[in-house]
Every structure is written in C-alpha cells, then in structure tokens.
Amino acid sequence: MSEPQRTAPISVILGAIGSLRSAIFPAIAIAFSGIGGDGRFLLALGVGLVSVVIGTAFSYAHWRRLTYTIGETDIRVESGLFSRSARSVPYERIQDVSLEAKPLPRLFGLVAVKFETGAGGADDLALQYLTDAQGEDLRQLVRERRDDEAAVSVADPQAPVRSEPDAGEVLYALTPARLLTFGLFEFSLAVFAVLGGALQYVDNVSDIDVWNVDLWRGWLTEQGSTVASLGLFVQAAAAIAGLLGLVVIGMATGVVRTVLRDWGFTLTRSARGFRRQRGLLTRTDVVMPAHRVQGLVIGTGLVRYRFGWHGLSFVSLAQDAEGESHIVAPFAKMEEIAPIVSAAGFRLPDDSTQWHRASTRQRTDTVVFGSAVFVLAAIPVAIFAPFGLFLVPLGAAVLAAGANLYAWEFRRHAIDASQVYASHGFFSPTRQIATRLKLHSVEIAQGPIARLRGYATVHLGLAGGTFTMQGVPLAEARALRASVLETIASTDFSRLDQAPQNQALSEPHSEFSENFLAT
Amino acid sequence: MDHTPANTPAGHPLDDEGELTKLHPGYAHALRLRTTLTAIPFLIGALVAEAAIRDLALIPQGIIAGTVLVIALALIIRVPATRYNARGYQISADRLRVVRGLLFRSDTVVPFGRVQHIDVHQGPLDRFFGIATLTLHTAGNHNASVSLPGLGEELAREMREEIRAHIRRETV
C-alpha cells in the first residue's frame, strides 16, 4: 500500500489561470457596458481581481483536499471541500488509461491522467495534473497490476516501474504529407459557424445590431448595384470565384482542424494493447487493451471513398472525448488497415465471406417512401407557388429515389464462423465487424411496412456501440439469430474479458482463441 | 474451462420461433386501467372546452366531449386486449425471448450468459393486479435493458432466481 499522494502543485497555478480566463470576459463586458459610470474600468478590474483570488483559493483548497492512493487492487481518490467523496476503481475494471496534455499544462510538463472504466464519461476517474513521468509510471503500474494480479508480488509503487517503456511496433503513423491530404478531404465550413458566433458576440457587446435586416439590405443593394453594372460575364466569373473561394476556405479549415487534432498521429502495438498518440497543441496519449476491443468500424467519406481512403475505429466501452469510438487509423488505405485489424484479433471480410444483400423489397420500399415525402410536398407547391416551382420538389424526389437505389448497393451483411459483418451508407459504405462471441443480445425489429413485406432489421447488442443489419429477409434474420445465439449462449459473460493467456489454449471454441491469437 | 453440457445449445434443440407464453391475465386489466387513467384528463379537458364555448353556440353541444369519449372508449376496450395479445415471452434453458409491439414488432432474445443484473419491479397498479415487471440488463448499448412486464408476481421472482442460478453456475 502506498501513502495518499497529491497531484502536482503547479495544478494550483493552472487552476488560477483557468479562473483568470473565465474572469476576463465578464470584466471586459463590464468595462464596455454602462454599469458603474466613470468608475467602470476600476469596477471591471475589481471584479476580475476578486474572481481570480476566489478562483485561486478554490483551486488551492481543491488541490489540498484531493489525494489519490495506489492500492494493491485499486486506485482510490478522495476529494471534496465540504462533502468528501472517495472513489475506488479496481484495476481489472480500468478499460484504458489516457494521458491528455492541453497546451498550457504541456508547457509545464504536466498531463491529465484519465482512467476509463466504461461507466460513462463524467463518472470516470481523472487526476489533473500529474507530471509527465508520474503519469507514465501510473499507466505502467495500472497495466502491470491488471495483467498479473496475483503472479507478481507487487514492487513498491513509489519506485517507478520503468521495466518496459512500451516501445512497441508502430502500426500506423500519419506523415505530414498524408495529414495534408487528409485535411483536404475534411472539408468543413465550420469557420462560418464561428463567424456567426463572433457576429452574435459583436451584437451583444457593441451597438451594431447585426440582426437588423435593413442594415444588410442597404449594404447588399449598394453592392448589388455595383455587381449589376458589371455585365453577365463578369457576374458569372464572380459567382464562380465566390464558389472557389468557399471551397478554398472549407479546405483550409479542414487542414487546420486536422493538423491540430491529428498531428503526429502514431498507433503502436505493445505487448498488451494499442497506444495512440496524437495532437499538435493538445497532446493525447491513449492506451487500449486489445482484448477490450468489441468491434470495428471502417468508415469512409463521399469523396475519399472514390480515392480508396478509409478510417478505422475500435468500438469499446471506453470512448474518445466526443463520445465516439477510438479512432485508430483516421485516414488509410485498406492494406494499411488490414494489419491493425489482425493485430486486434479480427479478420477483414475477404473473398470467402458470403455477403448477403438486403431484400429487394426493402429497396423498393425505401425508394418509394424516400421520394414520397418530396412528391407530397410538390402538390401544395404546384397549387400555390408560381408555375414551375413544383419541379424543385419533384427533382428532389428523383434524387432521393436515386440515392436510395444507390444506398442499397452498400446494404449488405454477412456471418461466418466467428464474426458478423454489416455494411450500410448512402454514397459510401460504413462497414462494421464484430465478434459473434462478444454480442449481448439479438433483436429482430419490424415496422408495419417491413412486416407486410417480410423483412426485418436485426439489432445486435454490442458493448460500446451499435450493430445493425438492415432489410434482412425474415427467414434469414431468424436463421442468423439462431446461429449467433448459439455462439453467445455457450460462453458466459464473466469469461469474455479474462486475460488471454489463462484460457486461450484450453478454450474449446475456435473463434475465441482466434480473437486472441495475435494478442 | 469446463462447459456443463446442459448449457450448450446442442443439448437443447432450441426453437426461437416457438409458441409464446402468454402474460398474466391481470396484465390486460392493468393495461386497461392505465389507459382509463390516461384518458380521464383528456375527458376533463374536453368537458371544460365544451363549457367554455357553450355560450358561443358555434357547434352543437356535446360534439367535443362526445368525440373524445368515443375515442377513449374505443382505446380502453380494444387496445389493451390487442396489446396483451401482441406480447409474449419464451423462456428456455439458457435464454429469454421477449416479443412486443403492435405496429412496430420487436422480438428480442437475451442469453442468460450475458445478463449483468436483474430487476423485478412492481408499481402500485401492478401490485393491485398481482403482476410484476422483470428487467434484464445487458452490457450492449442496444437493448441495454430488456423488460418483460405483466408477469405474475410469483413467476417473476421464480424466473429471476432461475436466471440468477444460471449465471452463478456459469461463473463458478
């Protein structure tokens, strides 16, 4: 047992800086509003100072009162000023340990250490901030404690465990050139949303009323008359230039966002799991145990699919910040994805995989109902709107029908001895792979139309994600359920996550050991 | 790891499409009572609306309240019976199948080996009719909890014990 420890003292300063940051805007607002008359700058300064002092005091008190203890079997954190809370997380329940270094803590060599248990974001255990070395030690420690609970007589936790600093084989890395290509595909117009937000802010703190229509109309007619005097050719050129500008801005935004998020993306394979490092300013470092991976998602995009680019994510109980699955290869060719997939103990669908297509009846129904909305919308438009406008919803109906027809191309599912596969998407396929053994329930769902037409949606219960096969003919859905259930029911949940070395060899089910073969 | 043969599906020619077991008859009554309770506020609302526009004499008296009453009666008499008939379950050696839904049918199977914890819940109405809801929780995101309402109270507890025994047998 170790003594209760505190987080790094610099955390207090970082907390204080955080409170300073949140005090700045109210202070500015006071300075520029009418409150306080002549003395408003002093008032603003006062408010800012007071909030910084209070923030620092709280930050210090929190730091004083938060201790963590690294025990034999669990990590305990005690915190709270007035109402104390003590949380204990056993090592076996820790899904992964991630280190996150935001820009400011990074300057001081500090990281936030998060222990993910799969109990849902806010309930996880987090220590901010520890020094880089402490965080790394803690991670090593957690891993070793978890791996050999009983086997190793645990060394003194105070003495840093630096036995294997995890210099595993690099499975995937994003080179700057690749990152740039990736960024171009991440076309985003988010910058306009940011501009909108900024306008709103200008509206709040200044006298300019940005939502005043007259202001804009005046500006537009002024510009419009200039444009109108230019002639048709120049107008068209200007429109094209405008569109091109939009594309350039969108791509530039994409590149900037991607570089910030995925700079130095490296995925390494170590003895026990996967380790992902990424980020330019905010650096994150996540370790995922291989046997916790429940399924895979291979996604792609409308355009990048045409160039053969895909992205791979792991479905597990632990998730990335946005509540998404862990992305392990954001932008890769299939041949680069294949080794990662096999390292995780899965197999990609190959020629022997028997894909089944969705029912053609379902294709007909989605086409009919997908376009029916627009056809219905065309009726009032034809009656009330100026002649010719009804062609717009009709055109949309044709497009919707075409999109649904095309989407059927991607709607497939397959099952083999150990895995289930599904694929769906409108203009590009999203493929999912899951181990039959790690499914939790099977549901056959049918809406009124599906019942009439004899097909169903099959939902498979997957921890940390969803797995759906759409438009499966009913008889096939039942057969599928029967065979999946046969696999599930033969192994109890408690045996699923056991350390592989204990049982991989004695396990009678071939699919089970297969999933761990590479582990 | 040792599999007792009794738990392997090979030992049980399981038929997931088999005949469903009906729920406790009290469940139909409970559904009916629940529908009635839901209908009462609407009826009161209709009567209030009726009273409010009586002086205006826009429409013949009793149209609003009458319509609401007819719809409510239809719902109270017809729907609970249909819903009761649409529901059912099937329990076998190692799994529970729950079927529900009138328009949107759903047919879920949960193997006992994947059950995380089990709830037996009784609301005040349920207690009056002697029924209970059995809920199985799994680790999957979809169907994180599968509930089977309208079991006889005794039966629900028996089923819980049975499922629990199965889990323990597998784990020990």
Automatic annotation (TrEMBL), chain A:
Membrane-crossing segments per the record? 12-35, 41-61, 179-202, 232-260, 366-384, 390-408
* A Pfam family it matches: bPH_2
**Keywords of this entry:** Membrane, Transmembrane, Transmembrane helix
Instruction: Please verify whether the record's keywords include Transmembrane.
Output: yes
- Keyword Electron transport present in the record's keywords: the answer is no
For region Disordered, the annotated ranges are 500-519
Question: What name appears for this protein in its UniProt entry?
Answer: Membrane protein
What organism, scientifically named, is this protein from?
Answer: Erythrobacter ramosus
From TrEMBL, chain B:
YdbS-like PH domain boundaries: 84-163
The cross-references to Pfam families, in alphabetical order and at most eight, read: bPH_2 (PF03703)
Q: Does the keyword Nucleotide-binding apply?
A: no
Q: Which UniProt keywords apply?
A: Membrane, Transmembrane, Transmembrane helix
Annotated TM spans: 31-53, 59-77
Give the protein name, as stated in the record.
Answer: PH domain-containing protein
What organism is this sequence from? Answer: Erythrobacter ramosus
